[in-house]
Amino acid sequence: MLNLIIGMGVMVICLFVQALLVVLSIGFYARHRDPESGPSFFSTLGVISGVMLVLVMGNFIQIAIWAALFIQLDEFTDFYTAFYHSAVNFATLGYGDIVMSEEHRILGPLQSVNGVLMVGVSTAVMMSSLQDALRRIRESREGVEG
């Protein structure tokens, strides 16, 4: 039961990290889209790539948070191994080449659920940004043709 409480606490921390990165990525998108001139393919690609990088960095931060927990629980002795195991869980790959002790094993599935949810949020933000960018390109071209 303690592992579930710890895991849920880390999930809440990751939610706050994700929310912060969503705000930062939306702010990045809003600041870097070009409202005066019509958006070009390359400028749009650059802005969308920036949004993606901000969101991926957020996912890496969350993976690192879980890795730090695993080290704190004495599951791993080095950060590299803990980070690798954490990334496998977060991405729901489930290689199984490195496993945790029975005492803390439930944290793996909890982290996987957390990863699915947070990657889903990142995907939603990416799609929203991409849809807005495509809409702006279409409107810009319609304005030129009309």
Automatic annotation (TrEMBL):
Segment forming the signal sequence: none
Protein's name according to its UniProt entry: Potassium channel protein
Keyword Cell membrane appears in the UniProt entry: no
Gene Ontology biological-process annotations: monoatomic ion transmembrane transport
Keywords from the named record: Ion channel, Ion transport, Membrane, Transmembrane, Transmembrane helix, Transport
Listed InterPro entries: K_chnl_dom
Sequence ranges assigned to domain Potassium channel in this UniProt record: 63-130
Pfam families (alphabetical): Ion_trans_2 (PF07885)
Bilayer-spanning residue ranges: 6-29, 41-71
